[in-house]
Write a structure and sequence with these properties.
This protein is α+β, with helices and mostly antiparallel strands. The chain is built from 8 helices and 20 strands. The chain has 2 domains: 161 residues, FAD/NAD(P)-binding domain, CATH 3.50.50.60; 151 residues, 2-Layer Sandwich (D-Amino Acid Oxidase, Chain A, domain 2). It is elongated.
């Protein structure tokens, strides 16, 4: 008996929608997207800095380095072609006195990753390009930028719609059962509705819950299965007086102790400036997006190091997001997990787990890769 759909995508965040877009581009029309929220892109994808990353931080040869670099230029092209707001504004990674060696190490890693548009700036050169910033030196990365994540996802969604794909909102995946060469997916919602959908292929793009969805076919006995640790990051916005005063993304050096890029500066299409994210490792899987006003002290102290004109009263709580970090053994690098699980006896099952930063930047290339796996089969 034929399946209800050729492909079911679990999750309508930027990566799930990018897969749908990739499938539509290849003429794969029998696609269903299952999303637990009441609209697409309500989770990780809409609660971040909206930065187009360069790829300077990632170990050469890692999946993050690969997909970020390939996805970045595809993303810029897609934005131009689809009139999506973006700015290739560039980025400054700021170093204080005594951090010169760390900055040099980062520069050399960027060179190893073949990142374009790099230059090391001294204090005077930094002041010339960004007068509000005071640091000892900085790495300028010209290929970094900023984007409207919502406009991007809306464009992906339109392409999916034009490809005659279906989407179910306010629906949760409750279980999955392999059925020979297909999968039976138990779905609850919207409302009290409960039903099953069959598919030849399942793409697990469930974001914060992608490891739990994987367990629906994987089980919980295998200690090597992908597992996630969730990290909350909060943002504070700056007063309107700061609007359009910053022209580049500004980052401190990597905070390796907390696996964080540090409290950095980003902005939106209107020039409004925000600081963040912080790092709060969550002990339980709970989507609490409250931002504590008392955290403004920490944000102020971190940003004041390179933004001397900042006043604490300039900060107001803005929003927070939660990102999924892949749990690794022995503190190994937390990379993406992107696999067709055919060699684990689950043909047609694709896991996209631990897609945190630079997932937004990498989305188009991830989507096209997954779509090609399905189409070529």
């Amino acid at each position: 008996m034929a399946s209800d759909y050729q492909v079911v995508i679990i999750g309508a965040g930027v990566v799930g929608l990018a897969v749908a877009r990739g499938l539509a581009q290849l003429g794969v029309n029998s696609v269903l997207i299952i999303e637990k929220e009441d609209a697409f892109g309500r989770g990780i994808s809409s609660r971040n800095s909206e930065v187009i990353h360069s790829g300077i931080y990632y170990p050469p040869g890692s999946l993050k380095a690969k997909y970020c670099q390939l996805g970045r230029e595809k993303l810029y092209s897609f934005c131009r072609e689809n009139d999506i707001w973006h700015s290739r504004c560039g980025k400054l990674v700021a170093a204080q006195e005594g951090q010169e060696n760390e900055l040099q190490d980062l520069y050399e890693n960027a060179l190893a990753n073949e990142i374009p548009e790099l230059s090391l700036l001294d204090k005077e050169q930094v002041a010339a390009v960004e007068p509000e910033i005071s640091v000892a030196s900085a790495l300028f990365v010209g290929c970094a930028g900023i984007i409207s994540a919502h406009e991007l996802m809306a464009a992906f969604y339109r392409i999916s719609e034009d490809g005659d794909h279906d989407i179910i909102l306010k629906a949760q995946t409750m279980g999955v059962e392999p059925k020979g060469n297909s999968y039976s997916i138990s779905v609850k919602g919207p409302g009290e509705a409960s039903y099953k959908v069959t598919a030849d292929w399942v793409v697990n793009a469930a974001g914060l819950y992608s490891d739990m969805v994987a367990e629906m076919v994987w089980g919980t006995d295998d200690n090597n299965r992908p597992a996630l640790h969730l990290v909350k990051g909060s943002y504070f916005k700056l007063a309107p007086a700061w609007r359009n005063r910053i022209q580049h993304l500004v980052y401190p050096l990597l905070d390796s102790t907390h696996d964080s890029l540090g409290i950095h500066i980003s902005f939106d299409a209107g020039g409004d400036v925000k600081l963040g994210p912080s790092v709060e490792w969550l002990s339980e899987r709970k989507e609490d997006y409250a931002v504590r006003e008392e955290d403004s002290i920490f944000f102020y102290e971190e940003a004041k190091r390179y933004l001397p004109a900042l006043k604490q009263e300039d900060l107001t709580p803005d929003f927070s997001g939660i990102r999924p970090k892949l749990v690794t053994n022995d503190d190994n690098y937390s990379d993406f997990y992107i696999r067709h699980e055919e060699d684990r006896s689950f043909p047609g099952w694709i896991n996209l787990i631990g897609i945190d930063s630079p997932g937004l930047t990498a989305a188009i290339d991830i989507g096209e890769t997954v779509a090609s796996w399905i189409k070529e089969s």
